[in-house]
Amino acid sequence: MPHRHLIAANWKMNGLKDHIPVARAIAEGSRDFHARVALFPPATLLPRLADALAGTQVILGGQDCHHADSGPFTGDISAAMLKDAGASMILLGHSERRHGHLEPCALVAKKAVAALKAGLEPIICIGETLDQRQQGLTRQVLTRQLTDSLPDDLNGARFHVSYEPVWAIGTGLIATDAQILEAFALIREFLNRRFRIQHEPQLLYGGSVNGSNAATLLALEGVSGALVGGASLKAETFLPIIAAAHTAPV
Ligand code: PGA
């Protein structure tokens, strides 16, 4: 098991330059906590945050990338560009990309290869929809997403997986402990079977994580982090999650 929980803030399409003090407050407020803190701001803020957070323990990451290094892809950003802008991690396959932009697993896998090549540590997101859960397809969906979104190149590499039930994202609904434990056991077993693990992947849960539910969540067997959307936009709501990680067993 990793020694510290990874608490990741997914700012999604939120944040102008007046949000930089929030990042500073997160860095300042989490300084003494035993946790890895990562911020995934919109790409436009990465260079500014890289400056603003220089010398702090906060890790920066991109929210998505194109699978090519460079080329005629108007509006896209490559993994190398994110790295150049200050990122060292990247979110891939978030449900808002899979469902909002119809990204198939095979594309997520290509992006993961590009991310590794650029020296970024990927967090690959998977999760079932409510419909799929109600039809009893959760295990099947998660296994397919893991099989097809995680490229062989991850063998021996540093990467992480975030389980985010689509129905729990931004809804205030959180999966039950039993649902989380079942999904995490499946993921852990899959990773051990498929990959030669050199750096223990951190397994994150995402979907309506907040200061009230974080302590219980992070104490669950096998949960080594959280990917936080709404509650990560303000230091007052994000710091209690980092504080919960500080006291949770790893
Ligand atoms: P939420 O988002 O915390 O607002 O539910 C989580 C995510 O989408 O990563």
Question: What is the domain tally?
Answer: 1
- The shape, in one word, is globular
The helix fraction, in percent, is 25-40%
Please mark out the parts with pLDDT under 50 across 5 or more consecutive residues, or reply none: none
Biggest beta-sheet profile: 8 strands, parallel, barrel
Write the CATH architecture name.
Answer: Alpha-Beta Barrel
**How many strand elements?**
8
User: Widest sheet: strand order?
Assistant: 1-2-3-4-5-6-7-8
Radius of gyration: 17 Å
Distance between the termini: 7 Å
CATH superfamily: Aldolase class I
For the record, the CATH class is Alpha Beta
N to C succession of SSEs? EHEHEHEHHEHHEHEHEH
What is the third-level CATH name, the topology?
A: TIM Barrel
Cofactors and ligands: 2-phosphoglycolic acid
Beta-strand content: 5-15%
Report mean pLDDT, rounded to a whole number. 96
Number of helices: 10
**SS class:** alpha/beta
